Automatic annotation (TrEMBL):
This is DUF3231 family protein. It comes from the Bacteria. Pfam families: DUF3231. It comes from Pseudoneobacillus rhizosphaerae.
Length: 344
């Protein structure tokens, strides 16, 4: 596997008075916090990995988290911006027993890379300051390079199937009035974009389910463990609904990977890290639902995603409330509260 080139941020020139915008602050904050979490998780994975290729992949991913955190911290410090607390040594127990088998790590890295690419792709069009823009370009390019390594390994080891194959169209066609039907009348087959998003949502959710199942096994707080069990069952139901949509079209779908979780009940992570991680992953599902609905045309598919969205949103709200109650939710940068300004 090729190593990913480092970034030399010291060469950038900018106006000394150019302040960070809200978009730049927010995306830098999210990048630092997310990578601090991933850094803890990957360090633990590296304690229990036997496959040399998967180990190299984990090492490449760990190196990226360290670089991204270091560069973001440098920008924060130049702008006198408080470096987020994020996650650190207190949130991971490197001596904990193995919780996952090696192939899970590759699936996990694909999911995590998708989440990173989502942050960077949304952020780049909104970022203008040169050092921040170049940083996010580097983040995007590096994560895409890592994604290619991940996909190659998944395919070479037979750990995943490609998205379904469908016939090549004979000619250009325009849709008929039954295009939106989903419950009554003639219901057309799923089109390519609908299939792609079902495949993507299944792929994301089978990784998410395995991870939350593991978290439910090891969480110390009973309330959090029960919430994880609820999230596990919710995710499982969603997966089965999406799989049914593909199977009804005689199309294959990615398989569950629950067997890649061991029976260990000794937690390698703090409850704080695990709860934040699942809020982050479930929030990514909400973004994925938006993308899926945007290309959908069938009423039944739209209703399916709407129901998933409501249930996932409810889970995220409960999880966020627990984080707030326990003092675990770090405040992102915010606008001035002009109704409550204190006089100097």
């Amino acid at each position: 596997m090729k190593t990913i080139r480092p970034l030399k941020i010291g060469s950038y020139k900018m106006s000394p008075n150019e302040e960070l915008t809200s978009a730049e602050m927010g995306k830098l904050w999210a990048t630092y916090t997310g990578n601090s979490m991933a850094n803890c998780v990957i360090k633990y994975y590296l304690q229990h990995v036997d496959d040399d290729e998967i180990k190299t992949l984990l090492e490449n991913a760990l190196k990226l988290t360290e670089e991204f955190m270091s560069i973001a911290k440098e920008i924060f410090e130049k702008d006198n911006f408080p470096v987020p607390k994020g996650f650190g040594d207190e949130d991971v127990n490197l001596g904990a027993p193995r919780l996952f088998l090696d192939p899970f790590y590759v699936h996990y890295l694909k999911y995590a890379s998708k989440a990173g690419i989502s942050i960077y792709s949304v952020g780049l069009p909104l970022i203008y300051r040169k050092d921040v823009k170049e940083f996010f370009i580097y983040c995007m390019e590096s994560t895409l390079a890592l994604m290619e390594q991940i996909k190659d390994l998944l395919m070479n080891k037979g750990l995943i199937i490609k998205p379904p194959i469908i016939p090549v169209p004979d000619k250009v066609e325009f849709v008929h009035k039954d295009f939106l039907n989903g419950f009554f009348g003639h219901v057309r087959p799923l089109h390519a974009l609908e299939i792609a998003h079902f495949y993507d949502n299944i792929e994301n959710n089978v990784t998410s389910k395995a991870l939350i199942m593991a978290f439910a096994q090891v969480a110390k707080d009973k309330k959090i463990s029960e919430l994880f069990e609820r999230g596990r069952d919710l995710t499982s139901n969603n997966i089965e609904s999406y799989m049914k949509m593909l199977h009804n079209e005689n199309l294959p779908s990615p398989a569950f990977i629950d067997d890649l979780v061991t029976t260990s009940t000794f937690s390698p992570f703090s409850d704080k890290l695990m709860l934040f991680h699942k809020v982050d992953m479930f929030s990514m599902k909400i973004r994925a639902f938006g993308n899926s609905v945007a290309v959908n045309g069938r009423h039944d598919v739209g209703l399916l995603y709407s129901k998933s969205l409501m249930k996932i949103s409810a889970f995220v709200e409960v999880a966020a409330r627990i984080m707030i109650e326990k003092g675990w939710m770090e405040q992102p940068p915010k606008a001035a509260d002009r109704d409550n300004l204190e006089s100097s």
